[in-house]
Design goal:
This protein is mainly alpha-helical and 215 residues long. It has helices at 12-31, 39-46, 50-56, 60-88, 96-115, 118-130, 140-156, 163-184, 192-208. 71% of the residues lie in helices and 0% in strands. Helix 1 crosses helix 4, helix 4 (60-88) runs antiparallel to helix 5 (96-115) and helix 5 crosses helix 9. The protein is elongated and about 60 Å long.
């Protein structure tokens, strides 16, 4: 198991030190030069002493873990903010067309989080798979399911469906597809058709996932 970050910076100077370490590490990973991926090289390029680096990170792998965590935090924050706006603006209305529009907004934001810095997102995903990465406290699929659940209740009603299960299956399918695409076909993120097909996948499943008694 990879050790996690040792200390959380609180003062502006220490925050600047950690930010420099993270920025340099991301740059080295993108260059894909394994010979440069050492704590000594990271500290040199970041302009900090090796002792300062070890105050916050026990090894180079823990720096990667922190980069992965920051990427996930951005993903969660942006999608949560979007869902808050949807509900605040009362866009979440009682029709399938409204639900499709809302799902499109969520999927678009989900894609944007990865595609805005596509190569770094892809690199971090590969690194996370290669490391004994500690399980996050809340998975992306569970997080997305929690957000999709109310959208299903709005249209289908909580009494007719196990909407959390439907949301969780849908979220897992989308998250797995996003992660696989990052590795195998990253350029699909730049194509409008990818968003359209994600929405089609979601809506097609929801249209067909009726209770057994109504089949």
């Amino acid at each position: 198991m990879v050790d996690i970050q040792r200390r959380i910076p609180k003062q502006s100077r220490s925050i600047a030190v950690v930010d420099a370490i993270l920025e340099v590490t991301a740059h080295i990973l993108l260059e894909n030069k394994k010979q440069n991926f050492t704590t000594n090289h990271i500290a040199t390029l970041a302009g900090v002493s090796i002792g300062s680096l070890y105050q916050y990170f026990p090894n180079k792998e823990s720096i990667v873990v922190r980069l992965v965590e920051l990427h996930q935090e951005e993903e969660f924050n942006r999608i949560s903010s979007l869902m808050t706006r949807i509900h605040k603006n009362r866009v979440c209305k009682n029709s399938k067309q409204d639900r499709e529009n809302n799902i499109r907004l969520v999927m678009k934001e989900f894609i944007s989080v990865h595609s805005e810095n596509l190569e770094l997102a892809r690199t971090l995903h590969i690194q996370a798979n290669n490391l004994a990465y500690p399980e996050p406290p809340h998975s992306t699929a569970s997080f997305l399911a929690d957000l999709l659940h109310p959208l299903l209740d709005e249209v289908d009603g909580a009494d007719q469906h196990d909407n959390y299960t439907r949301a969780y299956i849908l979220a897992n399918s989308v998250d797995s597809l996003i992660q696989t695409t990052l590795i195998d076909e990253p350029l699909l993120f730049t194509k409008p058709e990818f968003l359209d097909e994600l929405v089609n996948l979601c809506m097609g499943y929801l249209e067909r996932s009726q209770p057994l008694g109504n089949a």
